[in-house]
């Protein structure tokens, strides 16, 4: 078990993921919330930070319970803090150092640098530099501009590095982390998806016993994997509810329901389309639409929950990134851009205990766990789809006719991506129905019909995204198919905006 102390770096989550890719469990804590009991941690990593150790508000945690007592790796700000706090000297660099650099000196026969050769590319991102090393420290590596790129403190398992081993551009970053965690800290690489499934299923059995649990399935990866883990643990005592809000993709309700039943889940499909569409009638404000869809979902789910006697638990597919107490997340007032609605965000009055089998996992780990319990790519490989569904892809007010136009357009686009082997290269794709009519000509007739926008993005977490350079031939064929097959649409455009400044969904 590895403890990562977060000083607010944008890369902190990446450190945790890299460690876990080595099959070693890691967790992140803010630097000012150091756990009392450190006995379960075999190694500690200090993250980078936007702060300068010379600044007044610089994070300065007391590391006396860690340094010299546990294997310690300090990255970037962490390394500067380590130097600064132990008699070294940290000063502004002559130039701010961002981007690639190469190791020009590497100390020979050093376990920490095993397998890493002179010239190896590393990634820098700092404006301070360590001019003088702390007491008892030995230089382990340098780059052209950074003399103290890596050091260790003699007589301790304490290491500092100025560059970022967690980012992709540090070519031997994983090797370095492995050297530290396995060779130096002596940790076992036993945190595998199979091991996770075994321990989680056992824990769920203990925790839940013979109680009944309800869970809202969305068709997405997280709720599906959460359901399968619970199913393995408590079988028929898990009651799944899959709500059709009338804003799903074409045939999605039937297809996914079928799939869930094949997986052996005890699932009830509830078709509440009419209830959602009634509630949405005439509403064209994006935030109000989101709120209505969220509210009706809770009402429908609550009604269903009441029909199952004696339910004690509500299961949710919450994953680790939703939960990390990050400094940036808690640090400042961030504007509400969109009020998100997720299956599972249910009110307290339901009076249920919460169980979240995936709360330790990152998204890619959820997929690996799903694979390890034999789930099909049909569910594991699906693009993310927002809770409010097509409701936020139909700009303006929503009608049944608009929903079916957009379902047809979306189906042609998504099927096309699959046929052209592009689906798995795209992180998310969909179509937007615009509240715009434009003039066209079909045969000899004038038309005045709807315009749709196609959007396909690459991303890792949806926080930032860029549009995908889809082949022109594909766009050409798709546009033709849409205009020829979907009545009511006479124009197709492709969205070439990145996030930020645009968001992925148009509402
Ligand atoms: P935006 O549009 O904010 O979307 O760039 C980022 C990611 O979040 C998804 N999204 C939602 N997911 N409930 C969800 O479960 C929502 O209300 C919601 N709104 C946006 C969006 O599809 C993209 O993957």
From TrEMBL:
Pathway stated in the Swiss-Prot or TrEMBL entry: Purine metabolism; GMP biosynthesis; GMP from XMP (L-Gln route): step 1/1
Enzyme Commission designation: 6.3.5.2
GO molecular function, one term: GMP synthase activity
Domain (GMPS ATP-PPase): residue spans on this chain: 191-382
Reactions performed catalytically: XMP + L-glutamine + ATP + H2O = GMP + L-glutamate + AMP + diphosphate + 2 H(+)
Active site annotation, chain numbering: 76, 164, 166
One Pfam family in the UniProt entry: NAD_synthase
PROSITE patterns named among the record's database cross-references: GATASE_TYPE_1, GMPS_ATP_PPASE
Database matches in Gene3D superfamilies: 3.30.300.10, 3.40.50.880, HUPs
Keywords carried by this UniProt record: ATP-binding, Glutamine amidotransferase, GMP biosynthesis, Ligase, Nucleotide-binding, Purine biosynthesis
Binding site for ATP: 218-224
Function: Catalyzes the synthesis of GMP from XMP.
Record note on quaternary structure: Homodimer.
Name of the protein in its database record: GMP synthase [glutamine-hydrolyzing]
């Amino acid at each position: 078990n590895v403890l990562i102390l977060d000083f607010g770096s944008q890369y902190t989550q990446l450190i945790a993921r890299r460690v876990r890719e080595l099959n070693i469990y890691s967790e992140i804590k803010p630097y000012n919330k150091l756990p009392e009991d450190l006995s379960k941690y075999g190694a500690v990593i200090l993250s980078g930070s936007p702060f300068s150790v010379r600044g007044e508000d610089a994070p300065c945690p007391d590391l006396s319970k860690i340094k010299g007592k546990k294997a310690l790796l300090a990255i970037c700000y962490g390394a500067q803090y380590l130097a600064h706090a132990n008699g070294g000297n940290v000063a502004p660099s002559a130039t701010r150092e961002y981007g690639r650099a190469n190791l020009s000196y590497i100390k020979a026969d050093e376990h920490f640098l095993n397998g890493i050769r002179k010239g190896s590319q590393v990634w820098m991102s700092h404006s301070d530099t360590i001019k003088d090393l702390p007491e008892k420290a030995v230089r382990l590596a340098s780059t052209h501009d950074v003399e103290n790129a890596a050091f260790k403190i003699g007589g301790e398992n304490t290491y500092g590095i100025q560059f970022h081993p967690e980012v992709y551009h540090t070519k031997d970053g994983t090797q370095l982390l492995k050297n530290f965690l396995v060779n130096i800290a002596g940790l076992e690489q036993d945190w595998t998806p199979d091991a996770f499934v075994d321990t989680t299923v056992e824990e769920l059995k203990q925790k839940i016993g013979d109680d009944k649990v309800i869970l809202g399935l969305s068709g997405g990866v997280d709720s599906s994997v959460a359901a399968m883990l619970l199913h393995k643990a408590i079988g028929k005592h898990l009651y799944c509810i899959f709500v059709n809000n009338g804003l799903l993709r074409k045939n999605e309700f039937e297809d996914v329901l079928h799939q869930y039943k094949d997986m052996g889940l005890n699932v009830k499909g509830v078709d509440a389309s009419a209830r959602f569409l009634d509630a949405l009638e005439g509403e064209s404000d994006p935030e109000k639409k989101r709120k209505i869809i969220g509210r009706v979902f809770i009402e429908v789910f609550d009604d269903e929950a009441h029909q199952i006697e004696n339910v004690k638990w509500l299961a949710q597919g919450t994953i680790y990134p939703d939960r990390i107490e990050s400094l940036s997340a808690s640090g400042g007032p961030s504007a509400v851009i969109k009020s998100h609605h997720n299956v599972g965000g249910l009110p307290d009055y339901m009076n249920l205990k919460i169980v979240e089998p995936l709360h330790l996992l990152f998204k890619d780990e959820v997929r690996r766990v799903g694979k390890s319990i034999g789930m099909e790519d049909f569910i594991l490989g699906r693009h993310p789809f927002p809770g409010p569904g097509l409701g936020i892809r139909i700009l303006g007010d929503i009608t049944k006719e608009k929903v079916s136009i957009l379902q047809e357009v979306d189906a042609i686009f998504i099927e096309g991506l699959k046929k052209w082997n592009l689906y798995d290269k795209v992180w998310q794709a969909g179509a937007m129905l615009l509240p715009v009519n434009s003039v066209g000509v079909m045969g000899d007739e004038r038309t005045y019909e709807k315009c749709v926008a196609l959007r396909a993005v690459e991303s890792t977490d949806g926080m930032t995204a860029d549009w995908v350079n889809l082949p022109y031939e594909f766009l050409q064929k798709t546009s033709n198919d849409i205009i020829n097959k979907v009545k009511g649409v006479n124009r197709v455009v492709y969205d070439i905006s990145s996030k930020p400044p645009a968001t992925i969904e148009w509402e």
